[in-house]
Each structure stands twice: as structure tokens, then as C-alpha cells.
Design a protein that fits this description.
Strand content: 5-15%
GO biological process, one term: innate immune response
CATH topology of the domain at 764-974: Rossmann fold
Keywords: Glycoprotein, Immunity, Inflammatory response, Innate immunity, Leucine-rich repeat, Membrane, Receptor, Repeat, Signal, Transmembrane, Transmembrane helix
Radius of gyration: 53 Å
GO molecular function: signaling receptor activity
Membrane topology: Single-pass type I membrane protein
Shape: elongated
Number of helices: 20
Helix content: 10-25%
Protein name: Toll-like receptor 13
Number of strands: 41
CATH superfamily of the domain at 764-974: Toll/interleukin-1 receptor homology (TIR) domain
């Protein structure tokens, strides 16, 4: 297996580019983890070249969003590999230039969004390959014109949006789209058109919606039939467009016409136009007073009998007098008076004669109160929707809606309501949706909603309610959604939530709850599916808290994130007991110091768990903490302080698809833990201090060669210890040496060294040491010089002896060789060695400055390290230089067994004869000693060059101490000062 890994890495090292492709990660994009490789988002990247952003995306991509990047340029063939793209969004970038063939091969593309860029020019054939394009947006760019034939090949276009540019030539636009038989919507708002003049072209019959608002139109200038098939026409905010511009233009097909903030007189326009009055939006037409409204109504009544919708918003209307709209055609649908200056609607009394309306809107006005309508004589039996949003309403009186009992949707949100009378909503027995959010309510009473028993949605978010009193919701048995978030609720009275037996979603976030009262949930314990408790004051001192959710068996969504002021610190070990149906759990932004190993045991149906920033410091996740979460598909544990990622902790998450581990403190990640997640498809490990060492070599290989798991922005992950290097390509070759072979060879070498070293020490110690001295002498050029000076030797002989034999040398050897007429000059260490010089240098100099070396051999001599060195040097000259320079004198008889370990000396003894000092046991010691000295003198007089016959006949025995212990019985005669 190890050899296989080495081979794989060798191939990868040789083909580094292929390694980038094989890894399942993208340089600038993230694959939607639930899209099966079809949807990609490339957001907030600093890359400036579009090709670089998308070059590594797979051909399976269908939806691609490139948003808020620094891309300025789209080169040719940028998307040539993405031939299956159907939706391409490139809005909010810095695009300036697009090459002519940038979208080549995108035959399947249906939607192209290039809005919010800096594009000022388009190439004529830019969209030629986009045969299936249906929607295109070029809004918010800097286009001054469209090149001819820009849409020649895009015959399936349905929607073209080019709003907010600098276009001036409408004829050019009309010509570009005239052949598009499927075009339904053309948006040219916020450009610089001054007219709709066109040359011998007509708009497609399919074109239903044309938006030309916020231009500089001075006239329409088009043929009478040019707009005959348009159904929606927006000409608003063309402030200089006059009434006469519409003379004779065919508007018979129009369903909606907006003329807001133009210079058109609406009455005059209706008189000269064939448009149906019921299809005109009268907003922003300067109908400031009742007389103008009445005049309009009378005119409308002459043309139609009923109106489905009458929009009079943003006209500056201040007062609504009684019977104001009585002269209008019957309004059967919506009446919109929003964005006027209305201070009161007076129980809608001004609508006398218009009691069949279904919807009334008076939003963004200046209403200050809603008075009681108990005695109103105008009765609205068909009114179903009433909206007073975005006003300044302070109070709502009793029976405020008494004359409109069939209201189903009431919107009073985003006001300043501080007082809601107990009977303000009296009579609204059909009410289904009530919006009271974003007001100043402080109290709710047990009869506030007494008549609203059909209510299903009640929104009280962002008020100042602090207590929910008993019986407040007692009659709301059909309520399914209750939003109390953003209030100041500290507690519920025991029966505060009684009556809510159908409640499905309860939002209590952003309140001041300090505990979760299990008793208040008993009423809806069998129906509640969503409970939002985030951003409260919930905290626990011990982990022995009983589960407050024991009976909420159908709860599927629970939010406990961001408890104030510093987050929840203790999470009781059985806190979630009973939540068998829970699918989503949020615990983010808390300060939990420990997650008990059994805390999630009951959450067997959990699909999503968010633990981002839930814990304080370094989090030590206990083994088994996720053991029962086998249904979990998404786990978010960002910025949790996780230090270790192990199989023991995450090993049971067998259905996990998405894992967000970014911004933790992991230096390494165990690959076996990742391999235990068989369904993993999305992994985010950014902003972790991952070390680029052998500890992560397997992780690097896994991230690059796992075709199932997308590692988010892997190629941007930096090494902790080397910020200039990237994690994906740090060098791991040294980490994959075959450890088995390495250990085998290492062990073999160690064993060999331990076995051979003692043997080498015994056998070669002196040879090595001698070689060192010889090399040192040769290196310093002494050897050669001494050899050259042999003929002029300073001494006749160098005497090598042990200090214990010094008496014999001084009393016998010295007198017989230097005295008695012999006249030999001897070199003795105590007399002739140079003071202060290295001992070895003195020995080498003595041996090579003497014609002969006389070794006085005794048992003590054999045990001397220095004597061994001297005989080594002399024997080198004997054997290697072929010089007869060595004389052996044995003072005592030494057996062959004792000489067996001195191989060099035995070699000399076998090659040459040696002298034996006659001992006292000799029959005639005087004559023997005389003969000894004569033989020694004769040997001294011989030349040093060896002849061949002599080499063959004479034997000489050496005594080399190769196995001797270091400096044992060192010869003290060389310890000179």
C-alpha cells in the first residue's frame, strides 16, 4: 500500500497541472451543495479576469452567478466549456469590455444578466450563439447605443431590460427587436429618449409590456398604430411629455397605462384617447382637490360603468369630503389613496355610494388616529382588505372598524400606535391576518381579540409589550402564527397562551425571557412546529435542568441563538429531551463552555444544526456528542474554537452533506474522520491554522483527489507557518517514504554497526590511527621531505623502547653503540626530542631522520601505545617503501601465543631475523652478549635498500598491537613537559 502511495505521488509530482483538475474545489466559485453540480456562486472575489473565475468549473454547470467581483473583462471563449449553462448572472461587477466571442458555444443559455456594470459598448455579434436566450438584462450600465443586429440570432427572447443607460435612439432599438416574435417585455426606463420616432419598423405583436419611464420624452412621435398591441405602457416621470403627444395613438389594447409626473392633463387625455379609463393609473396626476377628483369621476362615468381599480395615490389630496367619489363609476375592486396628505379617513364616509369596494389602501399618509365608527351610516359589506401602513397613527378607538365587519386582512403596522382600545377590533369576526407590528403597544387585554376567533396570523413584533396577561388569546383557537418578537416580554401569566390550540409557529425572539416555562406550551404542544427564542436572557446555572420541550413532539424548528447579554453559558445535558421531530436547531452566538456528550441524543430527526460561535474559547467536543444525529445533512460549526476533528466525534454523521468548519483553530484534520462521512459533499475549512507538515499530508491528498467532496476555496487556503505557500501544493514527497523499508534498513544498519564496530576496533584500531598519522604527515609534506633526506640522515638509529626497559638501554645499548669505538649516533627520546613539539611529530621525525629503528621488545613494550606507533612507522618503511630500516631486539623470551595478536610484528619476524638478548641462564653469557653486539653493529652498518634475494631468504617477525586497549599502560616516557 505504501509503495502504491509513493507511485501515485510520483505521477502527481510529474503532472502538477492534472492534480489541480482532479481536486474537487474551485478557485473562485462555490458549488451549491444541494444542486448536484449544477449551480455555482462566485461572489466577492478579487479576480479581475472573467475567464480566470470560471476556468475550472465543470461542464455540468447550469446556473452560474458571478456577483461583486473585480472582473472588468470577459475574453473570447470564456465559457466555452460550460455548454450546458442555462442561467448566467454577472451583475454588480466592474465589467467594461466584452470580447466578440465571449459567449461562444452557450447554445443552451436562457437567462443572461449583465446589469450593474460599466459596459459602454457591445459587439454586433456578441449574442450570435445564444439561440435559446429568453431573458436578458443590461440594466444600469453605460450603453449609448445598441449595434445593429445585436439580437439577430436570439429569436426566442421574451424579456429585454436595458433600463438606466444612456440610450438616445429609439428607432435603433425598435429595429433591433422588430423581428423577435416572442418578445413580451421591453424595459427602456431611465435612458435619454426624447421621442419614439422610428423608421419603417414596427414593434413585435407579441410585445405586451413597454416601460419608457424616466426619460426625456417631448413627444411620442410614433405612428398611430405603433403601440396598438401594447397591454402595459409606462410613461411615468417624463416631465415634459404633453397631452397632445397622444393624439390619434391607438391604445385600444392597453390594460395598464401609467402617466405619473408627466405634463399630461388627465381629463384632456381621456377626451382625445381611445384608452379604457379603467386601465389608467391616475397616480401622480396633480388631482389635489375634491373638485378635480369629482371632475375626473364624472368623465370616467361617461365612459365606463364600473372600475376594477382606481389608483389616486401621490396626488397631494388633503381632505376627503363626503360623497367625494359618489360621482365615479362603481368601484368593484381596489381603491388606492396611498402617498397623499390625508389626515383622516373618517370611517370611509367619503365612500358613500362606493360600498362594494374589496380593498382600500391609505399607506404612507399622515393619519394620526382611527376614530370609532360605531355610529357610521356607511356600511362596507364587501371590504376584505384594509391597509393603513406607514402612517402616524397614535390610537385606535373602540369599534374603529365597525362598519366593515368582513375584513379578512387588516394592516396597521409601521405606525406609532400606543393605545389600542380593548374593543378596537370588535366585530371583526372574519379577520384572518392582523398586522400590528412596529408600533408602540404596551398592553394586550383579555378582550382585545375577543371577536377575532377566525384569526390565523397575528403579528405583534417590535412593540413594547412586557407581560402577556391571562386570557389574552383565549378566543384565538384558529391562530397558527403568533409573532411576539422584538418586545420586552419578561414572563407569561399562567393562562397567558391559553386558547392557542392550533398554534404552529411562535416567535418570541428579542424579548427579556430568562427561562423557558414548560407550562405555557401545554395548550399547543401537539401542534407547535416552530419556536424562536433567540436573543432573550435565557441562561442556566447547572446542567441538571429538566427539558422544557419534553412534550413538544412535533416541534421541527428551534432557535436559541444569541442569548443576551453574553450568551447562554450552560447547556443542560438533557435539555433537548423529547424533541424527536426537530429538524433545525440554532445555537449560534452563545458562550457555552461545554457541550455534554449526550445533549443531542434525542434529536434523531435533526437535519440542520447551527453551532457557529456557540462556545467560549477552545471547544473540546466530546466523543459521541453527535452519535445519534444520523439524519443530519448540514452542520455549521464555524468559529467554535474546535481544536481537534476526530472520527470519535463526527463518525456517526453518515448522512451529512454539508460541513462548515471555517474559522476554527485546527492545525490538522484526520482523514479517517472525513472518510467516515460517506455522504459529505460540501466542506469549508477556510481560516483554520492548518500546518503544512506531514501531519496533514494525507489531508492534502484527500482534498485534491476526492471526487465526491467540494472543499471550498481550497486553492486559497494558506499554510499557517508559511503564509506565502498554499496548503494544496505544499511539498509532501518526504512524507510518503515507505516507512517499512526505511525502518528495516535503518534497523539493519544499526545492528550491523553494533556488531562490526567492536570487531573493527580490535582489528583495525591501530591501522586506522596509524593511517591518520601517516596522512597527517603526508598532508603536511613532511613524509616526502624526510624520505628525500634519507641519505643525509641525522641519526644512525632511533631507539624505540618502553620506560621500564630504560635501564638496559642506558647501561648496555647506549655504551655499546655510541661508545667502545662504534661511533653510532643514536636518537633517544629524553635527549633528542624537540621540546614543545607534538609527540607524534617528534616520533615521525625521529623515524625518518634515522637510518634504522631499533625496537627493544619486551612484554611492557608490547603493551605500550607509543611503541606500537613507532614500530608501525618503521614497518611501513620496511614493507611499503622496501627499506631495511627495522631491527628487533627481544630482551626476553615471548611465546608465539603472546605474539599472535600482534600481526605486524609477526610479519616482520617471518620476513627478517631478529636478535635475542642472552639472558642469565645462558651457558656463557659474556660470549653471547659479545656476539649479540657484533651482530647488531653489523646490521646497523647495512644499507637500507633491500635486495631481492634478501627479501626471499630472510625472515622477520613484527609485533603490532592492533587489538590493544586505548592507551592501557601508556608509556610515560613521552610525557614531555
Amino acid at each position: 500500500m505504501n509503495k502504491l502511495i509513493v507511485n501515485v505521488l510520483a505521477v502527481n509530482a510529474a503532472l502538477g497541472a492534472i492534480q489541480l483538475i482532479s481536486g474537487y474545489s474551485y478557485n473562485n466559485c462555490i458549488e451549491d451543495p444541494y444542486s448536484n453540480g449544477t449551480a455555482f456562486n462566485c461572489k466577492n472575489r478579487k479576480e479581475v479576469n472573467m475567464f480566470a473565475i470560471v476556468k475550472d468549473l465543470p461542464s455540468s454547470a447550469i446556473n452560474l452567478t458571478i456577483f461583486k467581483t473585480y472582473a472588468e473583462y470577459i475574453p473570447n471563449y470564456s465559457f466555452q466549456n460550460l455548454t450546458n449553462l442555462q442561467l448566467l448572472k454577472m451583475d454588480n461587477n466592474y465589467l467594461k469590455t466584452i470580447d466578440e466571442f465571449a459567449f461562444q458555444n452557450l447554445h443552451q443559455l436562457q437567462t443572461l444578466n449583465l446589469s450593474c456594470n460599466d459596459i459602454s459598448e457591445l459587439k454586433p455579434s456578441l449574442f450570435n450563439d445564444l439561440h435559446n436566450l429568453t431573458n436578458i438584462s443590461l440594466a444600469y450600465n453605460k450603453l449609448k447605443q445598441l449595434p445593429g443586429g445585436i439580437f439577430a440570432s436570439t429569436l426566442k427572447l421574451n424579456i429585454i431590460i436595458i433600463r438606466q443607460n444612456f440610450l438616445t435612439n429609439f428607432s435603433e432599438i425598435a429595429k433591433s427587436v422588430s423581428h423577435l416574435k416572442t418578445l413580451r417585455k421591453l424595459d427602456l426606463s431611465s435612458n435619454n429618449f426624447t421621442s419614439l420616432i422610428h423608421s419603417n419598423v414596427s414593434l413585435p405583436k407579441s410585445l405586451a409590456s413597454l416601460y419608457i419611464s424616466k426619460n426625456n420624452l417631448l413627444t411620442l412621435g410614433c405612428k398611430d398604430s405603433f403601440l396598438q398591441y401594447i397591454k402595459v405602457l409606462d410613461l411615468a416621470y417624463n416631465s415634459r411629455l404633453p397631452t397632445k403627444a397622444f393624439q390619434g395613438v391607438d391604445f385600444s389594447h392597453l390594460n395598464y397605462l401609467r402617466l405619473r409626473s408627466t405634463n399630461v392633463s388627465i381629463v384632456e387625455f381621456l377626451n382625445i384617447s381611445n384608452v379604457s379609463p379603467g386601465h389608467v393609473d391616475f397616480s401622480g396626476m396633480r388631482l389635489k382637490n375634491g373638485s378635480l377628483v369629482s371632475e375626473l369621476c364624472r368623465l370616467l362615468k361617461t365612459k365606463v360603468k364600473t372600475l376594477k381599480r382606481l389608483s389616486l395615490n401621490d396626488n397631494g389630496i388633503v381632505n376627503l369630503t363626503n360623497y367625494l367619489l359618489s360621482s365615479c363609476p362603481e368601484i368593484t375592486g381596489e381603491l388606492d389613496l396611498s402617498r397623499n396628505r390625508l389626515k383622516s379617513t373618517s370611517c370611509l364616509n367619503f365612500l358613500k355610494g362606493q360600498t362594494n369596494i374589496k380593498s382600500f389602501n391609505a399607506e404612507h399618509c399622515v393619519l394620526k388616529s382611527l376614530p370609532s365608527c360605531r355610529h357610521s351610516k356607511v356600511y362596507f359589506k364587501n371590504l376584505e382588505e384594509l391597509s393603513y401602513r406607514y402612517n402616524r397613527i397614535l390610537s385606535v378607538s373602540s369599534f374603529a372598524f365597525n362598519n366593515m365587519p368582513h375584513i379578512m386582512t387588516l394592516k396597521l403596522n409601521i405606525n406609532t400606535i400606543a393605545f389600542l382600545d380593548r374593543k378596537a377590533l370588535k366585530g371583526l369576526k372574519s379577520l384572518v391576518t392582523l398586522r400590528l407590528d412596529n408600533n408602540l403597544l404596551t398592553d394586550l387585554f383579555n378582550d382585545t381579540f375577543a371577536d377575532n376567533f377566525r384569526l390565523q396570523v397575528l403579528n405583534l413584533r417590535n412593540n413594547h409589550i412586557s407581560v402577556i396577561f391571562n386570557g389574552t388569546f383565549l378566543r384565538l383557537g384558529n391562530l397558527s402564527i403568533l409573532d411576539l418578537g422584538g418586545n420586552k416580554i419578561t414572563h407569561f401569566e399562567p393562562s397567558g397562551l391559553d386558547g392557542l390550540q392550533s398554534l404552529s409557529k411562535l416567535y418570541l425572539d428579542g424579548n427579556n425571557l430568562k427561562q423557558i416555562d414548560t407550562s405555557i406550551y401545554r395548550v399547543f404542544q401537539n401542534t407547535l412546529t416552530t419556536l424562536d427564542l433567540q436573543s432573550n436572557l435565557i441562561n442556566f446555572l447547572t446542567d441538571n435542568q429538566q427539558s422544557p420541550f419534553m412534550n413538544l413532539s412535533k416541534l421541527s424548528d428551534l432557535k436559541l441563538d444569541g442569548q443576551r447579554p453574553h450568551g447562554m453559558t450552560v447547556l443542560p445535558q438533557h435539555f433537548f429531551r423529547g424533541l424527536y421531530s426537530l429538524t433545525s436547531l440554532y445555537l449560534t452566538n452563545n458562550n457555552i463552555y461545554r457541550l455534554p456528550p449526550n445533549v443531542f441524543d434525542d434529536l434523531t430527526s435533526l437535519h440542520f444544526l447551527a453551532l457557529d460561535r456557540c462556545c467560549v474559547g477552545v471547544t473540546q467536543l466530546q466523543p459521541g456528542v453527535f452519535k445519534n444525529l444520523r439524519s443530519l445533512t448540514k452542520l455549521a460549526v464555524e468559529d467554535m474554537g474546535i481544536q481537534n476533528f476526530s472520527k470519535e466525534v463526527f463518525g456517526n454523521l453518515t448522512k451529512l452533506r454539508s460541513l462548515q468548519l471555517n474559522r476554527n483553530v485546527m492545525q490538522n484534520i484526520q482523514v479517517d474522520a472525513l472518510e467516515s462521512l460517506p455522504k459529505l459533499h460540501y466542506l469549508d475549512i477556510r481560516n483554520n491554522p492548518l500546518s503544512c507538515t506531514c501531519q496533514n499530508s494525507l489531508l492534502q491528498n484527500w482534498t485534491q483527489n476526492n471526487p465526491q467532496v467540494q472543499v471550498v476555496y481550497l486553492y486559497s487556503v494558506q499554510c499557517q507557518d508559511h503564509s506565502k505557500f498554499k496548503f494544496y501544493n505544499f511539498d509532501v514527497k518526504v512524507c510518503y517514504i515507505d516507512l517499512g523499508e526505511y525502518m528495516f534498513f535503518s534497523t539493519a544498519v544499526v545492528i550491523f554497526l553494533f556488531s562490526v564496530t567492536p570487531l573493527l576496533h580490535v582489528k583495525l584500531y591501530w591501522k586506522i590511527k596509524y593511517s591518520y598519522y601517516v596522512f597527517n604527515a603526508w598532508f603536511s609534506d613532511r613524509w616526502r621531505r624526510l624520505s628525500e633526506e634519507e641519505e643525509n640522515c641525522k641519526y644512525d638509529a632511533f631507539i624505540s623502547y618502553n620506560s621500564s626497559d630504560e635501564k638496559w638501554v642506558m647501561e648496555h645499548l647506549l655504551p655499546n653503540l655510541e661508545g667502545n669505538g662504534s661511533f653510532f649516533k643514536l636518537c633517544l627520546h629524553h635527549r633528542d626530542f624537540e621540546l614543545g613539539r607534538d609527540i607524534v611529530d617528534n616520533i615521525v621525525s625521529a623515524v625518518y631522520s634515522s637510518r634504522k629503528t631499533i625496537c627493544v621488545v619486551s612484554r611492557n613494550f608490547l603493551q605500550s601505545e607509543w611503541c606500537s606507533l613507532e614500530i608501525q612507522l618503521a614497518s611501513y618503511r620496511l614493507f611499503d617503501e622496501h627499506r631495511d630500516v627495522l631491527l628487533l631486539v627481544f630482551l626476553e623470551t615471548i611465546s608465539d601465543r603472546q605474539l599472535s595478536s600482534y600481526h605486524r610484528m609477526r610479519k616482520v619476524m617471518l620476513k627478517k631475523t631478529y636478535l635475542q638478548w642472552p639472558n642469565s641462564d645462558c651457558m656463557n653469557p659474556g660470549e653471547a652478549q659479545k656476539l649479540f653486539w657484533n651482530q647488531l653493529r653489523r646490521a646497523m652498518r647495512k644499507g637500507s635498500r633491500l635486495e631481492t634475494e634478501e627479501n626471499e631468504s630472510e625472515s622477520f617477525v613484527t609485533a603490532k598491537s592492533e587489538e590493544y586497549e586505548d592507551f592501557k599502560n601508556s608509556d610515560e616516557r613521552y610525557l614531555l613537559p
